Structures are given as C-alpha cells and as structure tokens.
Amino acid sequence: MSAPSKPTPQVKPGILDIHAYVPGKSKATNPNVVPVKMSSNENALGCSPAALAAFEAAGSRLNRYPDSTNADLRAAIAGHFRLEPERLVFGCGSDEIFALLNQVYLQPGDNIVMGQYGFAAYAIGAKACGGEVRYADEPELTTHVDNLLALVDERTRLVFFANPSNPTGTVLSEAEVRRLHEGLPGNVILVIDGAYCEFSSAPGFSDGLDLARAADNIVVTRTFSKLHGLAALRVGWAYAPEPVVAALDRIRLPFNVVLPGQDAAIAALADQDFQDRSLALVAQWRPWLTQQLGGLGLEVTPSHANFVLARFPAAPDKHNALAAEAWLADRGWIVRGVKNYGLPDHVRITIGLEEHNRAVVEALQAFMAS
Questions:
Q1: If you count Cβ atoms within 10 Å of the first and of the last residue's Cβ in the chain, which end, N or C, has fewer?
Q2: Domain span at 245
Q3: Report field, pTM of the whole predicted structure over 0.90
Q4: CATH code, domain with 288
Q5: Are 30 and 332 in contact (CB under 8 A)?
Q6: DSSP letters of 183-213?
Q7: What whole-number distance in Å separates Cα of residue 10 and Cα of residue 341?
Q8: Read out DSSP for 50-117?
Q9: What does the pLDDT look like over 202-246, one tens digit per residue?
C-alpha cells in the first residue's frame, strides 16, 4: 500500500493565466554580428555624463541603504516641475507604481479599463490582484475616450492609458484627456502614464501634471528610463493626491529606489543640455525614419515618442513583420515585433543614431526587394 501523497503548494487562481511580460530582444541571431539594440526605446545617446559621474561616485557608499523617503530626489523633482513634494511617490520604475495602484485599489471582482494596445504591465498587475481587465477598442491605434468610458461601471477602480501611447506612439490632446477625466466617477482613478511625454510636441498636448494638480483622482507617472537614459537603474515617480500617496507608501517596499539611482536621477534632471540633445535627436530622425519607411511601402503610425511603429504586409510567405524582424536580427539590428500586443503585422523601431537609422532603412530596402 503506497503512502498518501503530500499536498503541494498551489498558486492562487488566475496567476497561471497571466501572460508574463515579454521585453524587447537584445541579441542578434548571428553570433558573429555585434547587435545594435533598437527594440526597447532606450536613449541612443546613453545617459547624462553628470548622471554617470553621480552613479560612479555612489560606489563608495554601496554598504549603505538608500534613503527610503527619497528626500533629495523628491526635492529635485518638486523644484524642477513646481510640484508639492508631499504628493510624490517613487517606484522601481513606473512599472512598480502601476502594480502598487492595483494592489491598493483592486479587490477580486473589481476591474480596470485600458486600451486594447496598452502597456502590458497594467493588465499584469490587475490580474495578479484578481481583477478583471477590460480592453477598449483603439481605432487608428489611438486611445479612444468614448470607448474607455463605455466600459466603466460600478466595479471599475482604475483607468490606465499612456500619453504618448506605447507601442503606437499616438497621443490624446489635453482637451480629450479632460473629457475622459470628467466622464469618470469620482471614485475611479485615471492613471496617465507619461513615460514618453517629453518627446511630444503635438499641438494641444499636455503632460497631465497641471490637470492632476487640482484633481482628487488623477495619478501621473513618469520615468527616468527614456529621455534621461537611466533604464538600468529603474527610477520612476508619480504625482498623485496625498491620500493616494499615503496609501501606496503603506505597502511600498522601504528601499525600492537604489542609492545610485537616486543620485544619478538628480544629476540627470539638472543636465538640460543632455535632455536637449536627446530631444533634438528624436526630432530630427523620427520624421526621416517615418518618411523612409513609408517610401518602402510600409504604413507608419504618426509617432510622438522616441520610436516609430511600421505595418508590414500580412503576406504569409514573405515580407511580413515576423520575417522583417528576423531579417534585421540576422544582420545585427534588433527591433521589436509587437505580436504580443495584438499587432502581428507591426514592428516597432527605436530612434537611433544617424548611422543606426540609415543602416536599418538600407537593410529593410534589401528585405523588401528580396
């Protein structure tokens, strides 16, 4: 007679139904080629020299815990953006702030609303809390206010959207964001993900901070990963109503922003020259890349971020998005297929240095002619 089997740990319902986040690829398929990564919307110029110096100087204090209150970084951000310091909360990237919001406000059976092509981290955090995720249709790859509002009900707790959007690069005007906010019940939090907001100069665009200043239910998140080139250090922050900040801080891990990250972020924020050069690079090469890809017969979504999204023919045999991604990877150019976002015919390409942008276009010319 065999002994009864012992019980094993069981994952709570719903966790194994979550599709894990898929980051941009970083390796070429050809081991003899040194890859150039244009898949994760990282800053092609690197980071501020001042930020790098601050990071290196922090090496002498690696035995010390970081300041859990982020006091110096808090003061720097509050001064730079003219915000109330007590209304700031910090995260290991803005991703952690999304997760904290879901943890604080969602109970099983509650729901969040987001666009059908929205950033995957919103949904992952909600599903981990037993929440339902409702996806609003995005015609023309753009956040649609009425479609979002149509999905809101008495169990909705959070509405997430990025402005500009990732992976599409499209934007909502300030007037449309205000209309979205005004259409929400007061107990529903509007989360504006501003990871790419610095790259937009679209008429009528706003980063959302002024709108959030007078609202009780708006959270605006920002990151040092994109414009400032500190993706490896994972420094994110949010501007939110004080009660929201107080709730998030109750469960936020005490040392979630590392000491070198805090120091580097302070230095990066003060380096306006590096920010200007980063913005100028995108402003110069984003329209060029859009025009060149269009000239190859590809449909390029008008972008207001540091990347472009190109649609390839849906041909099953050749010249499709999957084949294009593989063709480029074999030659050392790593771009991002976005099938996991429901866009199987599209490839997202980060704006790179001049030589990167020209080389990718040349490689795609060869691909389309093959």
A1: N
A2: 49-270
A3: yes
A4: 3.90.1150.10
A5: yes
A6: TS-TTSEEEEE-TTGGG---TT---SHHHHH
A7: 29
A8: HHHHHHHHGGGGTTSPP-TT-HHHHHHHHHHHT--GGGEEEEEHHHHHHHHHHHHH--TT-EEEEETT
A9: 999 999 999 999 999 999 999 999 999 999 999 999 999 999 999
